[in-house]
Model the fold of this input.
Amino acid sequence: MSFVMKDIFNWGQGFTIDFDLNTGMSEKKETTKRYLSNMRGMFADDEAMKKELAKGDPVVYEFHEMKAPEHPGDLAFGISITYPGKVGNEYYMTKGHFHTIIDTAEVYYTLEGEGLMMLENPEGDWSVQPLKPGETVYVPKRYAHRTINTGHQPLRTFFVFRGDAGHDYGTIETKGYRQLVVEKDGKPVCVPNPKWERDWMKILITPTSFLTPVNVQAKEKIEAFADEVVYNMTGKPLQPDQLIHMLEGVDGYIAGLDYITTEVIEQAPKSLKVISRYGAGIDRVDIEACTKRGIKVTNTPGTNSVAVAELAFALMLDVARNIPQLHETVQKGEWKRSEGIELKGKTLGIVGLGFIGKNLATRAIAFGMTVQAYDPFFDETFAAQYSIKKATLDEVIRQSDFISLHVPLNDQTKQLINANVIAEMKDGAIIINTARGGIIDEAAAAEAVKSGKLGGLGLDTFEQEPLINSPLKSLPHVIFTPHTGAHTAEAVEGMGRMAVDNCIDILSGKDNPYILNK
Ligand SMILES: NC(=O)c1ccc[n+]([C@@H]2O[C@H](COP(=O)([O-])OP(=O)(O)OC[C@H]3O[C@@H](n4cnc5c(N)ncnc54)[C@H](O)[C@@H]3O)[C@@H](O)[C@H]2O)c1
Done:
């Protein structure tokens, strides 16, 4: 064969491609000419491609293909670009995928960089050939194949195949490659692909943060582990009917604040083995129904406690000093001051001294507040270390200037703060709720603000979310945030990492400390 690809870049001179992918030699000069002239347009963008590469974008591949060939037997051309960054970056069908072109052979010519061509024949025997600048690699008919970057430079291979060739991506659907290339001691090595040893694995991920850069590492980890990962593209927690549909064929489910009701679990597929909650709260998961179906439920305790405690503290300061309203008036061009109160010397009553409650307590102590807390499982050692007073619920209610709620929503805590309880509070008490809506009777709280009994509320969570109509809206000293307690970069990253690890542990049959229904 003669295959003089270098000439392609020298537009002033002629070139020949004397190569037929079916017969070995070709005389189809006209076809070749037509496609090479199309390609000239594509290569005119070479500068733009180089600029893209210079950005060091983490995107693994970019694929440019000629428009569909017009006649059967025409040649098709493309260029692949593998971005630099790490050994093992693959072109086109990334993440262990590969493809076979069934009707024709294929030729790769390396323009730049270093790599490997992995070849697998229909019997599953595989071999590796080096991709080196200026050299061609021939892929025989029906061989599955993929190119892999083995250096830290971009790998650019130019390839040719017959235009009407059928592509077989069938194997991608099931197994992927038998061997993976990974970096070991700075060198590429082939290792067996564990996916060959087990069934197809599908994951559903609903927290929208997995579609943002913060959770990129967690996303890469689960995508490398699973065969198929589907995401919630609605931007909102899923309702039961949506969830039933999305769970089809799913083995592992990383769950945001979706409504995982009895109905959802009863209709969940047999394949579902784990619901890995991204976050601490499990009030929207019917754990009993999961246990009955043998579905493990995990959560990520502690990962968001600093984030929520800091928001609770910010809400205390906001209500105490009227900060959002002052901001609004300045924006409008007004210059009205309002008299606030100081936190120093006030008593903070914490209901639920868990991860979040404890983080709030230490911050309040640093501000010179007296802290008392009620928790049926009170941590005496922690309380002694930070001089937190152990109190009954009644004492917290009657003696606190600020009351902050950090309990789960359940039958014991539903409407814990109702009209009768509010009546027992100090006049002017301020309530902070970053736990769950439903713990406070919102109508009763609104009445108490109007009458002056309550000094204000700072609320991150609501009976109905999103909050549309509420008696609390437009009242003075009532401040809202949109259930955003856990939304810091640090917490989002931590929750994503732990939720992925929990999910992988369960699906790999390993033990895990965060299983809530052993
Ligand atoms: N706003 C947000 O975005 C956000 C984020 C994370 C968590 N949360 C909520 O905050 C709550 C607390 O989270 P955490 O990480 O501190 O959980 P945690 O389990 O560490 O703490 C909860 C504490 O409440 C105590 N408790 C249980 N029932 C109680 C009751 N009836 N009265 C008093 N105490 C009781 C428990 O003993 C425990 O110590 C979660 O349940 C969740 O609903 C909200």
Remarks:
- Confidence is low (pLDDT under 50) at residues 1-44, 56-76, 81-98, 168-175.
- Residues 279-281, 301, 304-305, 308, 351-357, 374-377, 406-408, 412-413, 434-436, 460-461, 483, 485-486 surround nicotinamide-adenine-dinucleotide (CB under 6 Å).
- The chain is about 30% helix and 25% strand.
- The domain at 2-196 is CATH 2.60.120.10 (Jelly Rolls).
